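Lab notebook, page 48
Experiment: co-folding of the full assembly
Goal: obtain a model of how the components sit together before planning crosslinking
Operator: M.T.
Materials (sequences as entered):
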Amino acid sequence: MHPFSYVRERSVDDAMRAHAGDPAAAYLAGGTELINWLKEGIALPSRLVDINRLPLAQIEVTPSGLRIGALARMSDVAAHPAVRAGYPALAEALERSASPQLRNMASMGGNLLQRTRCPYFRAESELPCNKRRPGSGCAARYGLNRSHAIFGWSEACVATHPSDAAVALCALEAQVRIAGRGGERAIPIGDFYRLPGDTPQRETVLEHGELIVAIDLPATARARRSWYHKVRERASYEFALVSAAVALELADARIQEARIALGGVAAVPWRLTAAERAIAGAPLERGPLMAVLATAFAEARPLAHNAFKIELAKRTLVQALEIAGAMR
Amino acid sequence: MTRAPGPGEPSPAPVEATLRVNGVAHRLHLDPRTTLLDALRERLGSMGTKKGCDRGECGACTVHVNGRRINACMTLAVMHDGDEIDTVEGLARGKDLHAVQRAFIEHDAFQCGYCTPGQIMSAVACIRECHAGSRDEIREWMSGNLCRCGAYANIVAAVEAAAGAEAANASV
Ligand SMILES: Cc1cc2nc3c(=O)[nH]c(=O)nc-3n(C[C@H](O)[C@H](O)[C@H](O)COP(=O)(O)OP(=O)(O)OC[C@H]3O[C@@H](n4cnc5c(N)ncnc54)[C@H](O)[C@@H]3O)c2cc1C
Ligand code: SF4
Ligand code: FES
Ligand code: FES
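Observation: model returned without errors.
Model output:
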């Protein structure tokens, strides 16, 4: 492992100061991603700034909804009564992620910043990968790309984002609160991630040294009727092949308002805004839903090995809508 | 990972940390790169906690930190200054095995035994979290522990029995 120095800070200001002095510094939260990258040589920081003792682990009900501190652990967020009652899609997404041990370690901020599970990116001996070494090429573009993107990819990178929680947070219209040199700002999670374009190594709008401090969730009727449906290749402890997060408002067994995001299909949680509009007024029945959603997938561009994801994502989405629709 | 630094890799300054393992405090000077798993095994000679994948994927390294189960391979030892760390060596009281250890023996819940310390530490936490109410629930909440020998059926039976025994004791 590449050598690094280690400092532990106790306040947001001290952590940002300790980070600012070093262009190769990295924040350390649960470590379940960063330590993996250190072992594989994917990240080579010179200094780790341990943020685990910053006062950012709270989960609090606010007048407008819920604020989840960036250091709240996945297990604590999933178990929190306000999350289970008000944002079931998030509780479900978190409980279907990783393992109980990892969820006890992993923080919400770190979860949003995890990187693709593309096997070329994670290879033990380096392979062409523009995320890992910009300009080296993309081994997946014409390689094995069964698990890769069908939306929004570029010739430079066809990877997907692996976070389950980010997909649920997208349908729940969350905002990411970021502390930087100029103070704090809040960004809708839909604008937080970047499509690959020519710079797939830049995955979010976060600047070097900026710290995620919290995730804000608005309280809505839709959020209470929300669900996350994850499809994977084993029953548990596996990343999503595809997933769908939905939040619904119903009137007379018909969908009145919907928010829809897909996982496992793009480098960002893939919000289906056109489908959200098209689906308004539709009855909660499989046939009509499938018909309405057909056009939503017209812009999908499958790769050599993943055309199956189009039909799978459509069915996964319909199932998520059915489950959310049947919630009391 | 605790290999000697390669050429051009100066050894980073050691960091002092106190690990409280099974109730005993150990003051250590650690290379910050040392994982908690390697500190337990290589610095403290505590070999009960196993290394399977070293990547968070198998659960062989499961220990409890401040009462919660975690993977010791995915965390740095220096992050745990002052934390209470419990390993499989700390479960028995003298010659009295922990109820979960007894259940694993009674249900023949292992073959080679390599995954067993991690399974047992995970099971103790799983029962304490109240995630052992049914076989399905046990399978889901023990899914972070893989068994290369495929002893799963007996592991689930052992966890179910230990959870049942604990519930019976609690209701007395
Ligand atoms: C075997 C395995 C299976 C997994 N399965 C799943 C799964 O099914 N679904 C899923 O969603 N995830 C899964 N994960 C990923 C897991 O959820 C992430 O590793 C975890 O959420 C990362 O959080 P952390 O606190 O450990 O981050 P760290 O490893 O500490 O940090 C990750 C990155 O985020 C940065 N960072 C952390 N916190 C902040 C902050 N507050 N502000 C700015 N930067 C920050 C760090 O500098 C680093 O770059 C799995 C992981 C493993 C190892
Ligand atoms: S898909 Fe992206 S992450 Fe995978 S090899 Fe290509 S550039 Fe790298
Ligand atoms: S050795 Fe830690 S999870 Fe496999
Ligand atoms: S008993 Fe051999 S790995 Fe589980």
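Interpretation: Residues 24 and 84 of chain B are 9 Å apart (CA to CA).
Next step: discuss with group before ordering constructs.
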